[in-house]
Amino acid sequence: MRKDEGIHERLADRLASMLTKLNMGQHLDVRMLSEEFNVSSRTILRDFDRLGASIPLLKDEHNKKYYLHENYLGKVTAKDIVKFAEISGIRDLYPSLDMSFLRELLNSRADQIYTTQAYSVEDASQFTEIFKLAGNAIRGHKQIEFLYKGVRKCVQPYRLIHHHGNWYLAAVFEKKLKAYRLSRIELLPHQSDGDIFIVDSAILSQLEAEETIWFGQKKIEIILTAHADVAEHFQARTLLPEQKIIKLLEDGGLLLSSQITHTTQIFPLVRYWIPHLKIISPEKLQDEMEQEVKKYFGI
To answer: Where is the signal peptide (predicted)?
Structure first.
């Protein structure tokens, strides 16, 4: 790389970083920027001159900091992007969501570097009206009505929850918190404003504490072993409900624990990892699952 090419790349990176910060509403100090980029204050002042030629850059005469006119601030900030990632459950998909990585990720050529595959979720575009209805009702603490599996329900909605690729509405029906899968909800032709309900703090606490959509049901502990050939997968990420690694076995395998409320939470996972994952306790669950497999194959 020629010397002038390196200088231009550093200038472009510096200007991009400064513009990103300005777009986020930050007030920039010349001295702090010169220290951050290891350049002179005169260089930073020239950078501001370049930026000021194309954007409405302002200077606070009291503290000498530069900032962008509020009418030109970006509508979405880095904090908004991070919050969206956290709500969507994809925060841990990336090694970092700091400003430099976001700038790289949102670059027009990012798809040449990053690709997400085998991330299976249902098509949520079909839920536009349900999202709107439920969202307004949750904010206004109002009851809503709909058909669920053909049965009319009047519920107190608390939260929209994305769980294992599917969307659910967490709502109180007949004084019990339940999860209604959005794909099974049928909206009524004419929606009227529902009655206002008093938010129950106990329900909110329950929602914060639960890691599944099986609300209020008693959990049982499952003990499993994972073979050494697949142990690294269970060490790298949580593949079982409320998974915990009890210990590393002498043969390189793992002894695991999981908390479930229904066998449908664990059986499909064990079947997927056959023959490398096995239920040790309760033994009857392993027997039950083996019988299902034998029945499927006609054994």
So the answer is: none
Could you tell me the domains of the chain?
3-72 (1.10.10.10), 78-112 (no CATH), 124-209 (2.30.30.30), 220-297 (3.30.70)
CA–CA gap between residue 190 and residue 193 (Å, rounded): 10
Q: What percent of the chain has pLDDT over 70?
A: 87
Q: Which residue has the higher pLDDT, 76 or 213?
A: 213
DSSP state of 93: G
Q: Is residue 276 within 8 Å of 225, Cβ to Cβ?
A: no
Q: How big is the chain by its Cα radius of gyration, in Å?
A: 27
The letter for the amino acid at 131 is F
Query: Quick one: pLDDT band at residue 74, thresholds 50, 70, 90?
Result: low
Structure tokens at 97: 């969501």
Which residues, 6+ apart, have CB-to-CB distance to 203 below 8 Å?
A: 158, 172, 177
**Is pLDDT of 254 > 80?**
yes
Q: Examine the pLDDT at 294 and tell me if it is beyond 70.
A: yes
Other beta carbons within 10 angstroms of residue 40's beta carbon come to 11
Closest alpha carbon to 192 in 127, 142, 129: 142
| Residue 65 CB neighbour total at 10 angstroms | 15
pLDDT reading at 1 higher than 70 = no
Which residues have a Cβ under 8 Å from the Cβ of 117 and sit 6 or more positions away?
none
Output the six-digit token pair for 119.
Answer: 């991330």
Tell me the per-residue pLDDT of 22-64, one tens digit each, with 9 for 90 and over: 887 889 999 999 998 888 998 899 888 877 766 778 899 899 9
